[in-house]
Each structure stands twice: as structure tokens, then as C-alpha cells.
Amino acid sequence: MRLARGFTLIELMITVAIVGILASVALPSYERYVDRSYRTQAEMMLQQMAQQLERRYSQTYSYGTVVADAAPGDVTPSIVVDGLDGEIGDRYTFSVTISDGGDDFALAATPIADGPQADDACGTLTLAQDGSVTASGDGADCWG
Q: 143, exposed or middle or buried, with CB in 10 Å at 0-12, 13-18, 19+?
């Protein structure tokens, strides 16, 4: 007579417990990694926007003017940033603030409320014309 082969209930329960513990550690770590990668992408978008404004300044000695009654971030000339129509647009809103004289600007990437990036510890990322960078949140190493 052959003995039946298989797993006992206790072996199965131990395996499920181990998988559950691993998942409880791995999932939050993965989510932090994804948030950090989108934050880095937002930083790159801000830098690309700043480069376009600097290019305009080198040609016209002005960063431009904000168009009256325009949506936040609309400037003359328009800033074209590759990739804003992707998932980064579902996580951040980008805005441009240009001083009245057109000599200063501040770019901001603000997490969308109730969006996947809303709980990011860094909050709003800001890049100014002098290259200074800030984050509204209290997260460490927000600008990488």
C-alpha cells in the first residue's frame, strides 16, 4: 500500500503566513519606490521647463508674460514639455509663475489631491530661476 503524498494543513498555513509577511514588507517598499520614481520624473519636467524659459531669456531678455485669464502655467510663449500627457499628469499639476517684469520665474509641481502622489512626503516641488529648489513637505532627500 502506498502512502498518500501532499501537504499537511499546518505546512500550508505556515507557507501562507510567510507569503503574507513578505507581502506586507514588499508592497509598501514598492509603493515608495514608485512614488520616488514619479517625483524624479516631476523634477526632470521642471528642469526641462526651466531650460525652455532660460532659452527664451537668452533670446529676448525676458522669461515671458503670463497670459491674462489663462489657465495656471500658461505663458507666452508656451512651454512644451514631453511626457505631461502620460501618468505624470495624473500625479502632478505643473505651474509657472513669472514676475511682472519677466525677470524671475518659479516652477512648481504640485501633487494632485486624492491622486496617487498625494501622500508623498515631499509635497510641492519648486524650482526658481536662480536654480534654488524647495519642497513643501518634510521628506528627506526630496530633490535627488
A: middle
Q: Domain ranges in the chain?
A: 9-135
CATH 3.30.700 corresponds to the domain 9-135: yes
- Whether 66 contacts 98, CB under 8 Å: yes
Please give the model's pTM, rounded to 2 decimal places: 0.75
pLDDT tens series, the chain, 144 aa: 667 778 889 999 999 999 999 999 999 899 889 989 999 999 998 998 888 888 888 888 888 765 544 454 455 555 655 556 667 878 898 888 888 777 888 999 999 989 888 888 889 999 999 988 988 888 778 886
- Between the two ends of the chain, the Cα-to-Cα distance in Å is 67
Signed CA dihedral, 83, 73, 111, 142: sign only: positive
| 8 Å CB contact between 30 and 22 | no
